[in-house]
Amino acid sequence: MSRTTASAHERSTATPSPDRTKPSTLRIAVARTILETRIYFRERDSVVFSFLFPVVLLGLFATVFGGGETVFGEATGGGVDFARYFLPGMVAAGIMLVSFQTLAIGIAVERDEGTLKRLRGTPMPPAAYFLGKVGMVLLTGLAQVALLLAVAAVAFDVPLPGDAGSWLRFAWVYLLGTAAGTVLGLAYSSVPSSARSASAVVLAPVLILQFISGVFFVFNDLPSWLQNVASVFPLKWLAQGMRSVFLPDRLEPMEVSGSWQLAPTALILSVWLVAGLLLCARTFRWGRKGDS
Predict the structure, then answer these.
(1) SS3 151
(2) Where are the domains of the chain?
(3) According to the UniProt entry, which residue ranges have a biased composition of type Polar residues (predicted)?
């Protein structure tokens, strides 16, 4: 081998080419986000349910309780119609559908089918998998909320906030609620024992929380003990935070506490976010129960 050839060979082996450089975790996470989003939208049944369920419920409330009736009309000197009042609850419920429910069921199915175990055997960092799920939830959640708000404004004449402060409040409530729902969905995905039982095990607590958290009913009309139970869980605070965004300020005194409670909302959603992260670290499994 000539000296020139040997020098070239040494340079090629000493310094890897850019094409052979291992991609960063963030780059892999972006790729996983795109892949997870594509997979999500291929599941047409799940997409239709997650996207249309809040829209259909909002339409039912507006139709059944419509006819010029308002919520808190006498107490506030001019209440709001039912479509406007229940819109925040539908937004909160939609966020929980695409975060907690979608992940808890989807990951349980992936685990049961062996998909998670195969992914764990690849060079992909585990953090990239989780970040891909988070990215998918953020994208699909924004699309779902945008659809719901568009239908509410066009079909039911619900006025949307016109000031930057309200949309800034929406942003942090949305991000905290989505983040908490996502990590709790990741943690709860270890509860179902199989793919067959996943839907029943996940849907039961979701439906119960929707009934007691001010999604389907005026929260003030619930018994006080149910209000106290709901206050432990994040959905109640997510719905209340969204009411502070989409309802007029004159309805703030009609809350059970007499205010929107923005500071407690941020605190409790953050606590659930941290709790979900700790639960994920302790309970998340890549394989089925009993797998070696």
Answers:
(1) helix
(2) 24-283
(3) 1-18
- CA-to-CA separations, 284 to 171, 181, 206, 274, in angstroms, rounded: 29, 15, 20, 15
Find the DSSP H helices in the chain: 3-14, 25-42, 44-64, 73-76, 82-96, 102-113, 115-120, 126-155, 164-188, 195-212, 224-230, 234-246, 262-283
String of DSSP letters for 70-96: EESHHHHTS-EEHHHHHHHHHHHHHHH
As a whole number, the mean pLDDT across the chain is: 88
Which pLDDT score, from 0 to 100, does residue 67 have? 58
> 230 near 212, Cβ under 8 Å?
yes
pLDDT per residue over 28-56, tens digit each? 999 999 999 999 988 887 788 888 889 88
SS3 53: helix
* 286 bridge partner residues: none
In tens, the pLDDT along 198-240 reads: 999 999 999 999 999 999 888 988 999 999 999 999 999 999 9
